[in-house]
Amino acid sequence: MKKLLVFALILIMGATLFAGGAKEAATTDGTPTIRLLTDATGIDDKSFNAAAWRGIVEFYGDTLSNTSKRGRYYDVVTAQTQDMYIPNLKQAADEGYDVIMVTGFTWADALGEVAPLYPDQNFVIVDVDWVGQPNVMEFIYSEEQGSYLVGLAAALQAKAEGIANPKFGFIGGVPGAVITKFEMGYVQGILSVFPNAQIVDYYANDWGKPELAKAQAKNWYDSGVYAIFSAAGGTGNGTIAQAKEYRLQGKNIWAIGVDSDQFEDGIYEGKKSAVLTSMLKKVENSSLYSLNAVKNGTFTGEVVKMTMEDDGVGYSTANTELKADVVKAVDAAKADIISGKIKIYGTYKDALAAGAAPRGLAALDD
Amino acid sequence: MKPVDTRESFTSRMLSSDGAVSVLVVLLGFLVGTILVALVGKNPLNMYKAIFQSLSGYNIDNGKMNVRYIGETLNYAVPFILCGFSMAFAARAGLFNIGGEGQYIMGLTVAQVIGLLGPNVPGLHWALAIIGAMLIGAAWGGIVGILKAKYEVSEVVSTIMLNYVALYLSRIICLQLPGASTYKTANFPETALLSNGFFQAITNNSMLNNGFFLMGLAVVVYWFIMEKTNLGFGLRATGFNREAARCSGIPVVRSIAISMAIAGAFAGLAGGIVALGSFRYGRVLSGMDNYGFNGIAVALVGNNTAIGTMLAGFLFGMLKNAQALMQGKQIPKEITFIIQGLIVVFIALRSAIALYLAWRSKRQLQKEVLAK
Question: Is the residue at B1 inside a domain?
Fold first, then answer.
């Protein structure tokens, strides 16, 4: 009973203290406002959500360390559990943002339910093309193209260093069609250099458990794996942590970053990084694209494809230890992908059928 | 005899009342939380605005009223309360049930299975799914109870281990369900859903559902078993002193097994309600929802009583809803976890107060003896 009293007290306190509080000024200068909604990993995941956030921050001329316009034009709400997705979407719609952006396919059902309830509200979702509502802009990336480049880069680097029979590893988050695109591209990139290379893969079934990736990476590096590509959100940070430890001890092994350029995360000594290259999935371009669309009044419910040609995916050359010849060869491959000369399969089924991927990988197509 | 100082007796009455101490602890948690928010350079008023909105639905910043926020708060509270009961019920019998999460997951899994495969009969369908969720929760907790009662296996260790067994078993099972992809199954038929048109109408389309009734029923059942039945008496006696209970003819082994089973049924119910109330599709879990673990804190704050745990669950539900609102006002979401954590830490004050009271009455006795 006492706790009821406290609740009542807080109610009264609230009512007397804040009643008639000033309304926040709505933006009248024509600058669009945006709310980013993320899953539990938040914008500190150093990859996917971080990239979306970076695009938003960039649009308003802020930097990650100085988000002065946060709260006025843009902000972010992280959902701790999945049952918060629908309430958080409705809350964002109540608060009247020009765009509400969600990242990742786990949001698709919640968005499909909420979007028709707010027909005048603009929504953006990344990695999904099946919501199909007139007020939802959907972005799809050709991850297999960017992943092909990092697989190619790692394999060429191994060749240039004269490593005999190098092994390669892939660590995924929750298996699914999107992550399979990463794995397939990576595998095909490696096999284009070493047709018989041994490739191992592992799925952590979680986007936020770096300890799992770290243990697996240690295991693999110990057994002679040369490079590991993690497409696993926050989980992948474990791979980089392990690679840093081993490079500091003088082992010649590499981690490959994902989504954002993870060069900085891999720095272990001076300017030396354990991240050889990163597959860039420029989710920030989705943020910029949708905000510009609102600004120019061209926002519609459509599926926007982000391929290598559209600068939606790519690879990072931040690490100077990546040999110049390798960069040259990878850039050539990039041009070949854009021109259609190199064909990359995005599903395990197609890759298997074309003999472009080995059997026995843990990738799933749905 | 000296005349009794009424003010002092008021304080000591307050201090010896567990309910009052809990309220005090909650206030203390909020106080420290407020100071922390101010220390990181944010306006604590925004925190209270968010809390106020999650309680009343009134948005102070734009003067808009939306009752949906009340509905969401109540809905978030349901699994907290039920998982709190799971911890509390076992605790009253002297057991530490950390397996609420596993029991919750098993309940959720079975509810999803029945939800997708069960008979599409209105009314019967979801009821069957909920009963199934409670039964599997009871079994999951009961295993631990039997191991503990018969073989003295520590319930702390076995419940923790069963949490992980539950998570991965759930994945294996759910991946076999119709339309299962790596993160979800097909949609449930309408008959499996707990949604309640009346609740949705009065709370402006919130997620509040029939689970709320079930939670209310659970509060009554918990109170009735604990306070009004021989079974409850036996459980409490076992919790106070196992050997004494055994000597007075209470079947201790049975008490322990039953208490773990009932505790598991509460958590299983929570899982069933979340599965069929908050989602239209079955989830292939990739991680834990943590309602089971939070239930431990809820039961601690609620002092293992029916009403106390219910109120503590509402508090946690409110904080969860306020958390999203706070982030919209640029208050870090972590602040709600800090407040919850502080409350749990301060709960330890209860024992300190008990020590203080014991020390004081001893001193008073000494004084009286010396005066003679």
Answer: no
Cα dist from B304 to A328, B186, B226, whole Å: 68, 38, 10
- Amino acid letter, A149: L
Residue A1, pLDDT above cutoff 90? no
Total domains in the fold of chain B = 1
Q: How far apart are CA A3 and CA B306, in angstroms?
A: 13
Number of domains chain A is built from: 1
* Domain assignment of residue A212, given as a range: 143-281+313-353
Q: Which of A82, A114, A178, A209 to mutate to test the interface with B (most CBs of B within 10 A)?
A: A82
- Ranges of chain B whose pLDDT falls below 50: 1
CB-CB contact of B187 with A112 (8 Å) = no
Helices assigned H by DSSP within chain B: 6-16, 18-39, 44-56, 68-92, 100-117, 124-151, 155-175, 197-202, 211-228, 230-240, 242-247, 252-277, 291-301, 306-328, 334-347, 349-371
Domain that holds residue B234: 76-306
Q: What is the DSSP string of B72-105?
A: HHHHHHHHHHHHHHHHHHHHHTT----THHHHHH
Two structure tokens written together for A356: 């472009």
Look-up of token digits 């999935």:
A281
Average pLDDT for residues A34-41, to the nearest whole number?
Answer: 92
Distance to chain B for A355, nearest Cα, Å: 25
Give the gap in angstroms from C-alpha A303 to the nearest C-alpha of chain B.
Answer: 22
Check if the beta carbon of residue A138 is closer than 8 Å to that of residue A303: yes
Residue B189 falls within a domain, yes or no?
yes
Q: Is residue A135 part of a domain?
A: no
What integer pLDDT is reported at residue B9 of this predicted model? 66
Element (H, E) at A57: helix A48-59
Would you tell me which residues 250-309 of chain B have a C-beta closer than 8 angstroms to some C-beta of chain A? 274, 278-281, 283, 286-287, 289-291, 307-308
Q: What's the rounded Cα separation, in Å, for the pair B125 and B118?
A: 6
**How far apart are the C-alpha atoms of B90 and B145, rounded to whole Å?**
9
A12 domain-assigned: no
* Angstrom distances, CA of residue A204 to CA of A230, A349, B44: 10, 22, 39
- The predicted complex's ipTM stands at 0.91
- The shortest C-alpha distance from B359 to chain A (Å) reads 27
Residue A272, domain member (yes or no): yes
A158 domain-assigned: yes
pLDDT single digits (tens) A203-236? 998 888 899 999 999 999 999 999 999 998 889 9
